[in-house]
Amino acid sequence: MDSNMLSPKPKQAYQPMVAIVGRPNVGKSTLFNRLVGGREAVTASIPGTTRDRLSGSVEVDEQSFTLVDTGGLSPPPQELLKDKIRMQVEMAIESADLLIFLLDGDAGLNPVDKEIALWLRKQKKPLITVVNKIDNLKRELSSAEFYHLGLGEPLLISAYHNIGIHDLLEKTISLLPTCALPTTESNIPKIAILGRTNVGKSMLMNSILGEERAIVDNIAGTTRDALDTQFIFRDQTLSIIDTAGIRRRGQIKQGIERYSVLRSIRAIHRCDVAIMIMDATELSTAQDSHVFGLAVEAFKGVIAVVNKWDLIDDPDGSKREQAFWTVKQAFHFMPYVPVAFTSGLTGDGITELLNLVLEVHQERQLVTPHGQLQRVLKDAMAAQLPASTGTRKVSIGGIEQVDTNPPTFVLAVNDARIHFSYRRYLENRIREAFDFKYTHLRIVFKRKRT
What is the pLDDT of residue 395? Predict the structure, then answer.
């Protein structure tokens, strides 16, 4: 392992969250796709995260934020439409730093819009009122009716035609909280405990923070209702990101817990290693897969944890092996993810889990020797060349590691349309050469100037 470290640009300590809210069919998903659709981090084809994607990263100059499309957060269909929208907005306000209230300039002002606006005016949350589908003079003139909402001057955009998007981004950045650059505390590995309700997150965390480990400090987190707890393991300070619903479940409004994925999104973006907790009696549900996918999209370290293993009668270890392969099969799109077995009740497996956390975090700091990295690329291309794109032969001019946590590699190419299978092939060759066993690698193909 090379001890020389890269010197990348300073990163934000955390990403603010911006939520798009509004009634159905006003263009929330179109705006979401317009803002994040072209980004490398959200274009990967990962099962469970494409058709119902909830979040993506948006970068403007040197600042970035997490954009949340609340269009996929509707409560059960038996609830009234206005109740669906009310719940959607409530969840966004609880989790986001800034709201984009999106309206339909084609359909005009709607009674439901007025009800949302009435409720929004009572909140203490930065807000941008945006009228979408303004792509001709008639609609622009008609948009004056939206002043009746009492939310100030609305921005006029057309997400589909890319009109007004630059102004929206400028205003968004101006209203976001200032993101302090990392301090020395940012070098402390941050762990997010994720998972569905009733999988034992709280008990597992209490087991991790047991009396046998020294609690260092309680530090106010970056969310309104989050707390980071530092502790020491093997002379190493670690920090657990305690999101709402893990330690303070009683303070969460009834019904809100079903939308815990929003809190998971924020925790994922702040953490270095995400611990995904599953119930030993109910492995790998669709929601598990979805939250896993969010962590993969954010290029975080991930550990799959089968909790409540004390409930399983397994004298010969056969059920443990079966559960291991069940998890591996369910999340086959990230085969590098390690699997741990724990019991928050008895404390079994906690030490092994924390050892894994340190190993994953250390691996994410690895810097590859430049010369050896070039040889790995040449050997990989000698064994298998990338497929041509149409009549054009694909040429790869070189590779460079540009960042750590996650390890990030940029390849200079004459055509960035590299087939997914070849991307995976090169990633696997890098993994084998430098012993990347557990962490996600970011592979970026950048078109070289001609």
Answer: 86
Is residue 89 domain-shared with residue 119, that is, in the same domain? yes
Cβ neighbours around 286 below 10 Å, total = 10
CA–CA gap between residue 61 and residue 174 (Å, rounded): 12
Structure tokens given for 410? 């940029």
Reported as a pLDDT band with limits 50, 70 and 90, residue 94 is confident
**pLDDT per residue over 245-300, tens digit each?**
333 334 434 444 444 556 677 788 889 999 988 889 888 666 677 777 778 888 89
Same domain, 142 and 31: yes
Q: Are 309 and 283 in contact (CB under 8 A)?
A: no
| Alpha-carbon dihedral angle through residues 289, 295, 298, 299, given to the nearest 10 degrees | -110
- pTM over the 0.70 mark: no
DSSP characters over 6-31: --PPPPPSS--EEEEE-STTSSHHHH
Reading the block at residue 62, the tokens are 């040197």
Q: Is 39 helix (H, G, I), strand (E, B) or coil?
A: coil
Domain-terminating residue out of 175, 194, 225: 175
CATH of the domain at 256: 3.40.50.300
Whether residues 252 and 325 share a domain: the answer is yes
Establish if 12 belongs to a structural domain.
Answer: no
CATH number of the domain to which 384 belongs: 3.30.300.20
Identity of the amino acid at 105:
G
Q: Pick from 269, 135, 136, 140: which is nearest to 194 by CA? A: 269
Geometric angle at alpha carbon 339, from 336 and 343, rounded to 5°: 165
How many domains would you assign to the chain? Answer: 3
Q: How far apart are the first and last CA of the chain?
A: 35
CA distance 444 to 339: 27
E strand or H helix at 377 = helix 370-383
Cα–Cα dist 287/53, whole Å? 12
Domain end call among 363, 381, 404: 363
* Residue whose tokens read 């079994």: 348
Question: Does a structural domain hold residue 2?
Answer: no
Domain presence at residue 162: yes
Could you tell me if 25 and 123 lie in one domain? yes
| Interior angle at CA 406, CA 58 and CA 170, nearest 5 | 15
User: Would you give the distance in Å from CA 260 to the centre of its chain?
Assistant: 13
Same domain (yes/no): 146, 93: yes
Maximum average pLDDT range among 81-85, 242-246, 336-340: 336-340
Which residue do the tokens 């330690």 mark? 247
Question: Any idea what the Cα angle at residue 337 is, between residues 346 and 286, rounded to 5°?
Answer: 80
The domain containing residue 106 runs over which residues? 17-175
Q: Which residues contact 200 (CB under 8 A, 6 or more apart)?
A: 277, 279, 307, 308, 344, 345
